[in-house]
Design a protein that fits this description.
The complex is a heterodimer of chains A (137) and B (119).
Chain A (H helix, E strand, L loop, with lengths): L2 E8 L8 H10 L13 E8 L13 H5 L4 H10 L4 E4 H6 L21 E3 L1 H10 L2 E4 L1
Parallel strand pairs in A: 1-2, 1-5, 2-3, 3-4
Helix pairs in contact in A: 1-3
Chain B lengths: L2 E6 L8 H14 L3 E6 L21 H9 L3 E5 H6 L12 E3 L2 H6 L5 E5 L3
Classes of the chains: A alpha/beta (137), B alpha/beta (119).
Chain lengths: 137, 119
C-alpha cells in the first residue's frame, strides 16, 4: 500500500470542545502506527486549521496556568518537532483579524526545523484533492 | 466486498450520531462489507458494559454486541476511556482497547474511511 496521506481538518475553536486536541493527538499517533501496519506501509498526516479552528494556532496560550492541562499550542509545537505539517488558512485569519505575528509560527525552542505554513483556501482545497482520507474535526 | 472504517467520536447521549454510526455499520455488514470501528472522544462511553436501556435515551450496547458477533472489529481509545474512568474490567466482551495509532493504521488498508466527528 505504501504511504497513505491523511488530512486532518480542524474547524472547531480550542478549549470549546475536545475536537482540536483529538485531531492533533490522532495525527501525532501516526508516529507509532507502524506497529499495526505491514512493512513499507505508513501514514503521512497534515493538520490544517480552517474557520474558527485557526484560533487553535494563536500563540502564548495559558491552558496549563488556567485549566491545568497541556495547551493546544504545545501539541502544535510537538507536531512541528516531528516534522508534521501544520497549515493555517489565511482567509480565516483575516476574517478574525489575526496577523502572523500573533500565531504559532515555529517551535525553534524545541529544536523543530519545520515551520507553520499560512496558506490560502485554494491551496488547502488542492491538498484535499490529493489525499486518500479526510478527517474533519 | 470492501472494507469500511468508521472513526466515531460523538457521545452516547446528546446526539443521534452514535446511533447512526451503528446503523451504518449494520447496513454495511448486511451487504457483506468488513467494518472496523474506532471509538474515541466521548464515544468511549460505549466501553462501559452493563448499560441499562431506557426509552428516553439511546441504547446501542445490544446492537454493538450483535455487530461484534457478525465480525465487526471495534476498538476503543484507551486513553480517552481511562480519562473518563472506564477501565479494562468495564469493557464489553469483544471490544478491544488500543492507542490512537490503531485507527491511523486502519486507514491504510481500508477502502473508505468515514470520520464521524464529536460534539
Amino acid at each position: 500500500m505504501g504511504a497513505v496521506k491523511l488530512l486532518f481538518l480542524v474547524q472547531r475553536p480550542p478549549y470549546k470542545s475536545e475536537n482540536p486536541r483529538l485531531a492533533l493527538t490522532h495525527a501525532i499517533a501516526s508516529q507509532t502506527a507502524e506497529i499495526y501496519m505491514d512493512d513499507g506501509d505508513s501514514v503521512v498526516p497534515t493538520v490544517v486549521f480552517v474557520g474558527d479552528g485557526v484560533l487553535n494556532a494563536v500563540k502564548n496560550q495559558q491552558a496549563m496556568k488556567i485549566y491545568g492541562v497541556t495547551s493546544t499550542e504545545s501539541h502544535i509545537k510537538n507536531s512541528l518537532l516531528i516534522d508534521m505539517p501544520i497549515w493555517v488558512c489565511k482567509e480565516d485569519m483575516n476574517r478574525l483579524g489575526l496577523k502572523e505575528d500573533q500565531m504559532i509560527t515555529d517551535a525553534e525552542e524545541l529544536g523543530a526545523e519545520l515551520k507553520t505554513k499560512f496558506v490560502s483556501y485554494a491551496e488547502i482545497q488542492k491538498e484535499m484533492e490529493t489525499v486518500q482520507h479526510l478527517l474533519f474535526f | 466486498m470492501g472494507v469500511l472504517t468508521l472513526g466515531v467520536f460523538p457521545s452516547l447521549v446528546g446526539s443521534m450520531s452514535l446511533d447512526f454510526s451503528f446503523k451504518l455499520a449494520e447496513a454495511a455488514i448486511a451487504k457483506g462489507h468488513k467494518v472496523n470501528m474506532w471509538l474515541s472522544g466521548n464515544a468511549v462511553m460505549m466501553s462501559k458494559k452493563g448499560q441499562k436501556a431506557f426509552k428516553d435515551y439511546s441504547h446501542n450496547e445490544k446492537k454493538m454486541k450483535e455487530l461484534i458477533a457478525k465480525g465487526m472489529e471495534i476498538t476503543v481509545c484507551e486513553a480517552c476511556a481511562e480519562a473518563r474512568g472506564y477501565h479494562k474490567e468495564d469493557t464489553p466482551e469483544g471490544m478491544k482497547r488500543a492507542s490512537m495509532d490503531w485507527y491511523l493504521a486502519k486507514t491504510v488498508k481500508t477502502d473508505r474511511l468515514l470520520h464521524i466527528g464529536g460534539e
